[in-house]
Amino acid sequence: MSSPKVEIIESYCKGCSICVEFCPTDVFEMEGFIAKVVRPEACTKCMQCELRCPDFAVKVH
């Protein structure tokens, strides 16, 4: 089974870091003021990042 595809829509991201804080498997890191997907293989598809992002910048496919 392949890992889910996790995407940050950079033009929507305001750098709040909520996705970084809520991700239980540390899929994200902040790079300056933009969240980046750094460990997509660790994603368990819990959807906390997408559900909690106030700017709709995170998509889990």
TrEMBL record:
<dbReference type="GO" id="GO:0046872">
    <property type="term" value="F:metal ion binding"/>
</dbReference>
<dbReference type="InterPro" id="IPR050572">
    <property type="entry name" value="Fe-S_Ferredoxin"/>
</dbReference>
<dbReference type="InterPro" id="IPR017900">
    <property type="entry name" value="4Fe4S_Fe_S_CS"/>
</dbReference>
<dbReference type="Pfam" id="PF13187">
    <property type="entry name" value="Fer4_9"/>
</dbReference>
<feature type="domain" description="4Fe-4S ferredoxin-type">
    <location>
        <begin position="4"/>
        <end position="33"/>
    </location>
</feature>
<protein>
    <submittedName>
        <fullName>Tungsten formylmethanofuran dehydrogenase</fullName>
    </submittedName>
</protein>
<keyword id="KW-0004">4Fe-4S</keyword>
<keyword id="KW-0411">Iron-sulfur</keyword>
<keyword id="KW-0408">Iron</keyword>
<feature type="domain" description="4Fe-4S ferredoxin-type">
    <location>
        <begin position="34"/>
        <end position="61"/>
    </location>
</feature>
<dbReference type="InterPro" id="IPR017896">
    <property type="entry name" value="4Fe4S_Fe-S-bd"/>
</dbReference>
<keyword id="KW-0479">Metal-binding</keyword>
<dbReference type="GO" id="GO:0051539">
    <property type="term" value="F:4 iron, 4 sulfur cluster binding"/>
</dbReference>
